[in-house]
Amino acid sequence: MGLMERMGEAGNGSGSSTGAEESRSQRTELAAGRREELITTVHSAVVSDLGARLYRGDLQGPELQRRVRQAVEEKLAAEGVPLPRSERVELVDALVAEIIGYGPIEEFLKDPTVTEVMVNTHKHVYIERDGKIVETDKRFRDDGHLRRIIQKIVGQVGRRVDESSPYVDARLPDGSRVNVVLPPLSVRGPALTIRKFSAEPFRADDLVELDTMTEQAAKFLSACVKGRLNILVSGGTGAGKTTTLNVLSSFIPLAERIITIEDAAELKLDHEHIVSLEYRPPNIEGRGEVTIRDLVRNALRMRPDRIIVGEIRGGEALDMLQAMNTGHDGSLSTVHSNSPRDALSRVETMVLMAGVDLPVRAIREQASRAIDLVVHQSRLNDGSRRLTHITEVQSMEGDVVTMQNLFVFDYEAGLDENGKHQGRLKSTGIRPSFLPRLKERGVVVSEDVFAFETFDSSFV
User: Fold this and answer.
1) Are residues 228 and 373 in the same domain?
2) How many CB atoms lie within 10 A of CB 371?
3) For the chain, what is the domain count?
4) 159: closest CA among 293, 296, 279, 316?
5) What SS3 class is residue 65?
6) CB of 247 closer than 8 Å to CB of 308
7) E-strand stretches of 306-372
8) pLDDT score recorded for residue 31
9) What Rg value do the Cα atoms of the chain yield, rounded?
10) What is d(CA 5, CA 92) in angstroms, rounded to the nearest whole number?
11) One domain for residues 323 and 446
């Protein structure tokens, strides 16, 4: 029996209960239920017919889409359900997107203006666009529908997520980063977060155009990277640390050998002499894990000119400091923190996580000698991502690591009529103490870069 007949029986059998007094909301809910039944029936039939051909390597792009669309239209016609043309086209598009794409969130993953997709259970889908988070009108049919899309996403990259392993952090083939949390960890239902990255990596000129940094700051940071200073990029979640790290990495001379180490590979470097290492999670038996710390230690044996760690999160901080202090100059990394000084405190805490019994003063001395510069980035309340501090790490005075701000964001400039910050990164007029070191390495920084610009000194 086709869906048309089943719908007819349902309608005839319910006449006495509904009658003329059935409310519009009830009729709408009934129509929605029939629509979901139609979608589920056609979806199952198409997947059953096409089977493994959906995932064959030789059937991709337009040809795959053509075959799936043809199959969907045939199955829909076989059900015999009369639909207006506009609704039929919408239904076919939705089914094709779910079968070969990612269902309700497919359009957001293709939209270059969307930088993040957040699904809080099947009922709520949020996106970030222009730095602002907004709720969309897209919905998954139920938790089962959302789980199927999640399994499809993580299955592409050889990962699994279920009740026994209820969370996963991975990356999609296009470089987007995906995080999934399932019940019982996520109490209200499955949660899915996808952070998208530009297909073309940002350049320094792009960040200058976006007001993330100034041209003077870009020239200064370029000189620091070429002069092999150890730089730590700090900031909160979603502040743009990885993008800035990618831009800093682009300043590395092409002749140098780079080893990148990441939890999920996100860096896109336009270098030939590069080796990219990625964390490996444990298998289903809890074995085979390769940690970031393991990769950092192994990288030291790979004859690197530069070591780039996507993010320091734990005991690998100790290995990074030791590498920086034993001839591996020019290393780059990121860390979560609220300010440049907090960044050093975080590094100190993570060194203690390595399980080595070191006095705090010894750790601070290691950090002060290893890290030359902290570049701090923030996402401001207008949605923009800005460098707010470029801070030199100097030395130890007593038990305190001394630091001095070289560039600071001018918050005093206020907001325009659209609520956008008018301030920018300004030089404090202070010359860093490492300038002679840069000069010894053949890198000269123009004095114009440090020209003092007036602003409220309370932020310096």
Assistant:
1) yes
2) 26
3) 3
4) 279
5) helix
6) no
7) 306-309, 332-336
8) 59
9) 27
10) 21
11) yes
Q: Does one domain contain both 83 and 106?
A: no
Domain that residue 436 falls in:
204-459
Residues 27, 11: contact at Cβ < 8 Å?
Answer: no
Does one domain contain both 235 and 304? yes
Same-domain status, 242 and 389? yes
Q: Let me know: does 385 contact 406? Beta carbons within 8 Å.
A: no
Indicate if 166 and 249 belong to the same structural domain: no
CATH code for position 131: 3.30.450.90
Give the C-alpha separation, 113 to 116, whole Å.
Answer: 9
* Size (the chain), residues: 460
The model's pLDDT over 143-198, given as tens digits with 9 standing for 90+, comes to 888 887 888 788 766 677 888 788 888 777 777 889 999 998 999 999 999 998 77
Would the pTM of this model clear 0.90, i.e. be above it? no
Handedness of CA 383, 385, 391, 396 (dihedral sign): positive
Instruction: Give residue 387's identity as a one-letter amino acid code.
Output: L
- Residue 234 DSSP code: E
Distances (CA, A) of 385 to 16, 130, 237, 280, 456: 61, 10, 11, 31, 21
Task: Report the amino acid identity of residue 253.
Answer: P
Express as a percent the part of the chain with pLDDT over 70. 88
Cβ atoms of 76 and 68 closer than 8 Å: no
185 and 218 co-located in one domain: no
Question: Do 184 and 252 sit in the same domain of this protein?
Answer: no
Look up residue 382 and give its DSSP letter.
T
Select from 147, 171, 196 the last residue of a domain. 196
